[in-house]
Structures are given as structure tokens and as C-alpha cells.
Amino acid sequence: MLILLNLFLLLGTVAIHAMTNNLKENIATKGKAVQSSTYYLKADAAIDDIDFYCTHTKTETNPWWRLDMKDLQIIEKVIITNRMDCCFEQINGAEIRIGMSLENNGNNNSKCAEISGISARQSVSYSCGGMQGRYVNMVIPGDSKNLSLCEVEVFVNDSLKIRGRAVQSSLLEYFRADRAVDGIKYAPGTASFCTHTQSQTDPWWRLDLLDNYYISSVTITGRADCCSQRLNGAEIHIGNSLEENGNNNPM
Ligand SMILES: *[C@@H]1O[C@H](CO)[C@@H](O)[C@H](O)[C@H]1NC(C)=O
Ligand SMILES: *[C@@H]1O[C@H](CO)[C@@H](O)[C@H](O)[C@H]1NC(C)=O
Ligand SMILES: *[C@@H]1O[C@H](CO)[C@@H](O)[C@H](O)[C@H]1NC(C)=O
């Protein structure tokens, strides 16, 4: 038997989330990498999970490398592995930048760290304290610079993992149904961590808890940036039926 929690809503957060506290998954390997120019060694060599293969731009002004994670992420740390053959001081002054914007090729996003130095073949971890973004950039400001990276690993906070399976009647941009159960209520300046349906008749959102539960309370968080009145009139339905997408369950 299955318990379904049904909510008619446009945006919000449901306070149900799992509690683990690991940082074990490197999500960089699932992304796509590009760089400002290529001197033999391609951009994806930094996300191939092999330290031996490295990237290399041409010698240029402000060379950069960018990882597209294809979705918003909350990033806890980035680990950079330097080259082992020579010239390991080339990386000095490189900046790690994280954000949503592609302005200036993503290099104008917020700075997580500036690399003062990494010894040959070594990996250094930079804490980004929960910065949010879709892009991770590496950029070395200045003229006649080479950017070479042997591995870039990106870790997100596992405690933000979702419990249950969320779906909704339609999707607007990247405001997916699981954003309401990701453990993030609201990120300043954006409603990115909320859900959003398209404009439609009787929009709904549904959480499948994947097991039987007695539900004692449901906490809903509305969006903070605007339009909080859009939640007015939303109904919470709970039950086992999927009739009418679960919306016929008792209110
Ligand atoms: C990016 O930031 C630099 C330095 O702060 C600034 O000069 C430049 O105008 C910005 N680029 C864009 C495209 O806004
Ligand atoms: C950049 O790489 C080129 C080609 O390997 C090299 O000649 C040059 O010295 C390097 N520049 C710096 C600043 O390391
Ligand atoms: C992961 O996020 C949780 C909840 O925000 C926080 O309490 C915890 O300190 C974070 N863990 C790490 C390793 O950053």
C-alpha cells in the first residue's frame, strides 16, 4: 500500500527530507566541459576521473575552463588536481567561480576560491560553503597565461537528497517537482529551489512517500521573491488512490 500526499500548489517547499551527511559523490563526471581554447588537450580531460590526462588551453589572456552541471547544484567543495610533468606553478592565481550566469563566459560568477599554489600531482580541496550554481569555472586572470587542469571534482551535500518521489502536472523551466523536497527552502535572490508548474487549470504536485505513514503534519513554505498569494486556495489531499492523479483523496 502506498500513501500519497497531494497538494495543489504553484510553488513551495514540503518539509520532508532524509538525514545523511556525506559528501561522497563527484558530480563533475556527469557534466560537460568546455574551455576558452585548446592546445592539444581537451576540456573533458579534467572530468574523466583519470588524473593522468589533463586539459590545456593555448597561451592567452584570461584562459578559462567551464563545467556545465546541466542543473542547479548546491556545491560544498571543489577538488583540483595539478599537472605532474612540469610547470605546476602555472595554476597560481586561478580562480574557482560558481553561479548561474554565462556573462563573460561564466567567469563573472561568484568566487569560491583563488588558488595560491598546488604542488605537482597534488589535489587540493576548496570549500565553497554551499554556493549555488549550474556552472563551475576556472579562470586565470592576466596576459600570457596557460590553464592546465588534470582533474576537477565537484561535490554536493548529500544531506540535500530527496525522500520520496515528487511529480507535478507540468513543468516550467527547471522548477522541477523535487525542488520542494530537496531540503532547501529558499536561496536568496532566486526562486530556483522551488517548484513551478506552467499556467494551467487545476495545477497539482504530488509526493509519493514510497511506504505507509501516518501523516501528523505537513509544512509548506511559499516562495519569498514574489506572488506568495498564488498558493491561496491550494488544497492538501492525502490518501492511497491515484484516481484523478491522487487529487480525489480526502482533503
Ligand atoms: C565581468 O567583470 C569584470 C570585472 O569585474 C567587468 O569589468 C566586466 O564588465 C564584466 N563583464 C561583463 C560581460 O559584464
Ligand atoms: C605557456 O605554455 C607555452 C607552451 O608550452 C610555454 O612556452 C609558455 O612558457 C607557458 N607560459 C607560462 C606563463 O607558463
Ligand atoms: C550539509 O548540509 C546540512 C544541512 O544544510 C548541514 O547541516 C551540513 O553541515 C552539511 N554538510 C557538510 C559536510 O557541509
UniProtKB/TrEMBL annotation:
Gene3D superfamilies: Galactose-binding domain-like. Its main location: secreted. Residues 24-161, 162-251 form the Fucolectin tachylectin-4 pentraxin-1 domain. Keywords: Calcium, Disulfide bond, Lectin, Metal-binding, Secreted, Signal. InterPro entries: BG_Antigen-Binding_Lectin, FTP1, Galactose-bd-like_sf. It comes from the Eukaryota. Residues 1-18 form the signal peptide. One of its GO terms (biological process) is regulation of cellular defense response. GO terms for molecular function: fucose binding; metal ion binding. It is found in: Secreted. Acts as a defensive agent. Recognizes blood group fucosylated oligosaccharides including A, B, H and Lewis B-type antigens. Does not recognize Lewis A antigen and has low affinity for monovalent haptens. Homotrimer. Belongs to the fucolectin family. This is Fucolectin-like. It comes from Carassius auratus (Goldfish).
